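Tutorial, part two.
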Amino acid sequence: MEQQERLIWIVDFGSQYTQLITRKSRELGYSSEIITLKESRKRIEAGQRPKAFVLSGGPMSVSEDKNDYEFLIGLDDIPTLGICYGMQLMARHYGGTVEKGIQGEYGHAKIHFQGEKFPGCPNDFNVWMSHFDHVTKVPDGFEAVLMSNNNLLAGIKHKEKALLALQFHPEVEHSEHGKDILRHFYEDMALLQKDWSAAAMLEEAKELAASVKEDYVLCAFSGGVDSLVAATLCHEVLGDKVHCFFVDNGLLRPQDYHHIELLKEKTPLNIEIIDAKDLFLGKLKGEGDPEAKRKAIGTTFIEVFEKKVHDYEDSHNIKFKYLLQGTLYPDVIESLSPHDEDGKSSTIKSHHNVGGLPERMNLELLEPLRFLFKDEVRVMGEQLGLKHEWVHRHPFPGPGIGIRVLGEIDEASIKKVQDSDQILFEELHNFKVYDAVWQAFTVLLPVNTVGVKGDARAYEQVICIRLVNSTDGMTAEWSDVPRDFLSKASSRITNEVAGITRVVYDITSKPPGTIEWE
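Running the prediction step on this input gives:
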C-alpha cells in the first residue's frame, strides 16, 4: 500500500498528540497518514483527494494565525473532523466566533451531549482538554452536540454535511469513549470502508524492505523490541544481506548482555558485538548536561558505525548502502515532527536514532517501523514468529544508563545503576509483575542522604525506582504495584548496592513528566 492510497489525511498543525490519531484510526481499521500543510496544499492543487480529513490540534491561536486555509477547510464535500485547534479553524471558517478565554480548560473535563448521543457513548463522560481559545458562536449550518460542564462548547456538527469538530482530544487514552467518537465519524459520517489490519501493516513493512533487495543493509542492533523486529523483518525479506552490529557502549544492564547472547544463539540473525565501552566513557567524561550526554552518545554511536562500515566493507569486499534502525513514531515526534515543515510543534528531547547520518558515511536510512507504535511492533514481532518474552521486553533507551545517571558519569555510578536495575528486574519476575508494567528502571540521583549502616553513620547516594504503564509512550501513568514488591526491592538495593543509602519511588505521570528523568 502506497502512502498516497491512505484513506485519511491527518493534517498536522503541531499537536504533540497528532500521531495518536493515526494509532487510533488504525486500531479502528482505517489507514491514515500525517501530512504537513505544505504537502496537503501541494496534493490538493494536483487534484488528489483523501476519503476524509482530520485537522489536528496545535499550539497556535486562531486569532494570531493569519494563514488562509480555504484550500483545505473549504473542501466540505470531503468528510472533515477538526480536533481542538482544528475545531477553532473550522468554526472561524464557517462563520462562527472564536474568543480568547479568561481561563482555559486543561486536563480532565466532563462533557455531555446536547440532544442525540453518538453510538456507544453515555450522556456524560470524561475527556482530555488542552485549550485556551474556545468557540463562543456556533457557525451557520452547524449545531452544538457536546458541551463541557464549564458551559463551553465541546463539539459541533454540521446538520447536513459530514463535518464534525471537537474541542477535546478523542485520540488520547485519557478521553473516555474517544474511539467510539472516532468510529462514529469514520463509519457513520464519512462512510469509510476498513482497509487496515496487522497483516496489512506487516505486508507494507515487507514491501519497504524489499525495495532495497539489491543492496547490503547494516543494522544498528540493540536487541530491544524495535531493532529485533526490524532486523527479523528485513532478514526474512533480504536474507544474509542484513548484517547486525551490536555496540557495547558500557551503558547496558546485565539483562541486556544475557539477552544478546541468547539472540545470537537462537535466531538466524548475523550479530556481531563491537566493544566500545572505553570510547563512550571517555567521550562522556565530565559531561553532566542531559542533552549534551545524549548528543555525545549519539555522535559516538555514529563514529563507531562509520569505522565498522569501512573495516567490514574492506575485509568482506562489499558495500553497505543502508543503515537499518528501529525508529518508532514516539521517537520521531518527541525529537521534531517530520511532518512539521511549518515549525508549529516543539521539541521535547533529542533521540539518538532519529535523523540523518553524516554524509561522509554514504549510508541511507532504512526505517520500516518509523510510523508504528510500540504495541504495533510487538504484534508484528509475534507475526514474525519471535518469542513472546523477546517482543514484550520493556523499552530501553538508546543512551541507556547514560541518561539514568543524573549528572556526570563514571564507572562507579554506572555500576550502581546496573546493580540496582538487576535487582529490580529479578524482583519484578519474583513477584510476577514484570508483564503488568510497561517500563521499569532505576535512576541514580545526584543527592547524598544520611543513613545508618552497621550502627555507623552513612552519607551515600539515592536510587529512584521508576515504573510506568503506557500503550504507546506518548502518555504514561505511574504503576501502582504491591507494597511488598517495593519493600523487597528497596531492601535489597540498600543492602546489596554499594554506596546507596536510600530508595525513593517516582509517582509522576506523563505529562507533566517524561518517562525518563533525562
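The domain at 3-189 is CATH 3.40.50.880 (Rossmann fold). In part three we will examine how such features are distributed along the chain.
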